Amino acid sequence: MSIGVFLLLICICLGILYIVHKYFGKEQFYLLGIVYTILSFIMSFKIVNILGIDINMSVIFGSGVLVILYYFVSRYSDVESRKFVYTMIISILTCIFALLLAVFVVPSIYDSYVYYQGLVLENLAIVVLYPISFAVTLFLSEYCFRELEKEKRKKIFKTITTVAGIIFIDTAIFIYFSYAFIIRFDVAIRILVDNYLMKVIIMSLYVLIVNKLFMVRKVK
Amino acid sequence: MNYLFLIVLTIIVMGLMVLFYKFGKKEGLFLYIGLMSSVLSTISYKTASLFEFEMQFGIPLIVAIFICSNVIVQRYGIDETKRIIKCFAFPYILITLLISLSTLIISSQYNLDSNVIYDNLFGYDLANVRIFISTLLSVGFMLWYNTNIYYYIRKSKNIYLFSNIVSILIVQFIESIVFVLISYVGSFAFNIMFGMAAMRYLIKIGIGLLGLIPVTVIMKMKVE
Questions:
Q1: Which residues of chain B does A55 touch, with a Cβ-Cβ cutoff of 8 Å?
Q2: Is A94:B60 a contact under the CB 8 Å cutoff?
Q3: How far is residue A17's CA from residue A21's CA, in Å, rounded to a whole number?
Q4: Which of A125, A199, B48, B71 sits at 20 to 30 Å (Cα–Cα) from A107?
Q5: CB of B53 within 8 Å of any CB in chain A?
Q6: pTM for this one?
């Protein structure tokens, strides 16, 4: 069941990318980027167990945002991809502000959603570190993807290798330090390794599929 | 304290509208609706005690979506209605459904408390489903109604502040009733529900009037 839902979420992430690429334009990719950013941030509060390894749920849609950035760098100008990065950062900050305000609001006597406080306050390290790692990853990825555009030979292989490096920095900032504060340092290392491997696999899969996607003719 | 938080959220939300218009113009406004809708899907379940009644905390985001749709109709005409509704509905439905879907995956033993809270907060629950449907229907349907009303007022009297105020007064009244009826019927007594709808309407009017400031700022900016 869990594996099925996990794979289903990956398929949905890629499926929507495909639909937006084929039938829609640049503006809809911006909207999709916002949706994936909010999804990855909210899902980052949950760790799941798939085949014995512990994975932070943000890996699926967080990788989706990186793939959209890769698409932007490949298709559109540098200004456009930089604009995309800023839009995503503003989106995540807005979501964090709204969530923090919702946490500190005095609930009504009928309010059954006092869970908000538990979710955010127990995971304050995630709330602080996720946007930082997200911003660092986006800026770094944008620079690397732009440099990779100049490469002529073995471009996909080089992209995947670069992505593996960027993901290491991302998971080291976000996963390691978050869970080191929330749980324990030794557990955090285990979760870091699990997440790193899973995110590299997912991201490599996404890059391979998106490169095939580029060959599909756009309707719009 | 709750009022202060509500005002802070309103200021942030209205400031963002100007920011998005400044850097994105027409496309920026559509993205803004998408962003508000995305954030709304994550905090729409949260209720706060305002004027002694249970209120949805995401009210400023809902009003901002309506005001933004008014700006779009004022600047670019009624033809954009479908796109406005799509920009609201697509992120709202997608985020709610996918987050709910993620609660079905078995949680890890690490950080167990948070995992349980996450599943309880976003899982498939009758109260969650009711709020999801009521927000989707009340905002989605009312956006269509709002753009039409705004357009016809604008046609008869092209003063954007007047058109905004009248459309807010009419549309938010219906929206408040529809939302409270779908979300809370059967859970609260009729007099409490009446109070909820009335307070929701009054708060929305207050936020809507504050929203006239970004509308004025945007209207004074140059058209593309």
A1: 108
A2: no
A3: 6
A4: A125
A5: yes
A6: 0.92
